[in-house]
Structures are given as C-alpha cells and as structure tokens.
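Entry 12.
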Amino acid sequence: KKKKVKVVISTNVAETSVTIPDVTVVIDLLTAKITGFDAARDLPSLTEQRVAKDAANQRKGRAGRVQAGECFRLVSEATFEEKLKAHSSPEIERVSLEGVAMQALAMDLDPVDDLAPDLIDPPDPAAVRRAVDNLRQLG
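Predicted 3D structure (tokens):
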C-alpha cells in the first residue's frame, strides 16, 4: 500500500483554525493578499505582501498536527530573520474606518471618544475623525 502525503501550499487559510487531517508538509511562499486602504485614492486595496513571522509560524503549525511534519519556506533563512516583521499589523490599522465609525454611530457611540480608545489596537484618532467626516459628507 502506497503512503499518501498531504501537502498544503500555504496561504492565509493556513493561518485559520481550519485543520486538514494528516497534513505532514507545508510549503510556504511567505506571501499573502492583504487588505488595506489607499489613502491617496481613498479606496480599499488588496495587495500581495510578505507575511510577518507570527503568521509564518502559524502556517508552519499546520504541518504535523497529528504526526511528524515539515515546513518548507521558500525564502532563505537570512531573508526570514532579517526582512520579515515580527508581528502582523492589526487589520484596523490597515483598512478604511468608515464601516466601524458607522456601526459606532448606529449604537449612539462617539467613534473617537467612546469606541476607539477601548480597542486593543486603537486606530489613530485623526483617522477615525476623517472616517466620521467622510460619512457626514455622504449624508
């Protein structure tokens, strides 16, 4: 009987809690499509970027959940150690805040004074004010 090997070509999905049984090999390009906000064009963006070390380690953890496994990162060790950030930036720091501001306003909260300071990684108050100003301009 031939031995089957399950391989994951690593993406953002490998950073989630989804577990594929018996995966023993992860091949990681160390890139991901990251949501962001292009302030110059005032539009959301989706760009391919290098992941941070914390995301890479999460991906590595997909191999060997049930049995011994390996992770192959398709960059040099020097690139991994020297060029990757230690931690991923929180999504709230990368995206447009209009949606969050609108939800706060719908709950009769002041997005700048009531909501933002209570977040684990609060956004820049000026960015929240800009989001509220944009909503007011839209009506």
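Annotation: Helices lie at 53-60, 77-83, 98-106, 111-115, 125-138. The longest strand covers residues 31-38.
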